[in-house]
Amino acid sequence: MRLGILTSGGDCPGINAVIRGAVLRGVITYGYEFVGFRDGWRGVLDRDLVPLPRQAVRGLARLGGTILGTSRTNPLKNGGIETVRSSLQELGVDGLVAIGGEGTLAAAQELAYAGIKVIGVPKTIDNDLDATDVTFGFDTAVQTATEAIDRLRTTGESHHRCMIAEVMGRNAGWIALHSGMASGAHAILIPEQRVPLTQVARWVQSAHHRGRAPLVVVAEAFVPEGREAPYSPRGLDTFGRPRLGGISLLLEQELQSMTGIETRATILGHIQRGGAPTAFDRVLATRLGMAAVASAAEGRWGTMVSLRGTSIVNVGFEAALGRLKTVPEDRYQEAAVLFG
To answer: Is the pLDDT of residue 165 over 90?
Structure first.
């Protein structure tokens, strides 16, 4: 069997470990041949590929990013199902391992409906895919954000300022929740909870009155009470989703005006996607890559590999995309005890 591997959508730590796990399992156990498509679905549409022999994946587990490159090309809009089908047939590729998040897996689902052999591997630092307990990249993103926020605290304390750290989280506030709790934030703002700015101001003032430098961690998709939608001044991406980022700058102005405390905002942005994966993410990503190839060998096309507890299982794309995994009320209230 000749399998193709692609990485699509936003990059994150651990993708290379998936590629390594897939190739090693396929070569050692099944004698498969592998090719990688450059820049996600674009590589499939343009027939742009690179061989992936065993020696090509040596030492990949510790490297961030993706050796194959990525893009946000939507194959359903830019070429269509039949273009994908003809490309795979002409290249002699029997099936695909698609590593990606919500947009990538949605495209893979439509291709699977059309009879194209696809196995999905969930990839998102946001940890918002409901069909898997944890997505690789999330642990690394939380660690990176926590380290950055720890640094913000020291400069905030030196100047007696309120510091706002904006982290990623398009549909769910998991990164904000975990990094905020880990760094001892005085307020955590996530898209699942509509919190009035008057309440945020009270938390900030409470910390300031105790002699602390207030720290606020906010997810990029947080919508303050009274606003209709997340702050997205940069339009839409290729999948038609708002390009988020900048809510912390609005909060900076509002909170400084409401509290009288000098306030500074920092958008952590893409540093959360970069760098070497943590040990947890390296292991999880490797296991998912190995499981994806085993699924192909067993003919479990049209499914996604998933972590349930400590086991890797297969779920249908419908389960993966049917509902987002958001922060439940009890988890937020647990953290809210520490606010202010």
So the answer is: yes
Task: Say which range, 122-131, 207-216, 286-295, has the weakest mean pLDDT.
Answer: 122-131
Between CA 120 and CA 301 the distance in angstroms is 9
Backbone angles phi, psi at 34, to 5 degrees: -130, 145
On whether the CB atoms of residues 94 and 2 are closer than 8 A, the answer is: yes
Residue 174's nearest CA partner among 241, 125, 242, 101 is: 125
Q: Is 139 a catalytic residue?
A: no
Q: Give the whole-angstrom CA distance, residue 263 versus residue 276.
A: 32
Closest among 293, 295, 325 to 313, alpha carbons compared: 295
pLDDT digits (tens, 9 = 90+) for 120-134: 999 999 999 888 999
Instruction: Walk across the sheet containing 303-308 and list its strands.
Output: 49-51, 33-37, 2-7, 95-100, 118-122, 303-308, 311-316
Catalytic residue among 126, 128, 139, 281: 126
What average pLDDT does this structure show over 205-223? 95
pTM for the model stands at 0.92
Contacting residues for 23 by C-beta, under 8 A, at least 6 apart: 5, 34, 52, 53, 54, 56, 57, 289
Q: Which two tokens stand for residue 218?
A: 């906010």
C-alpha 3, offset from chain centre = 25
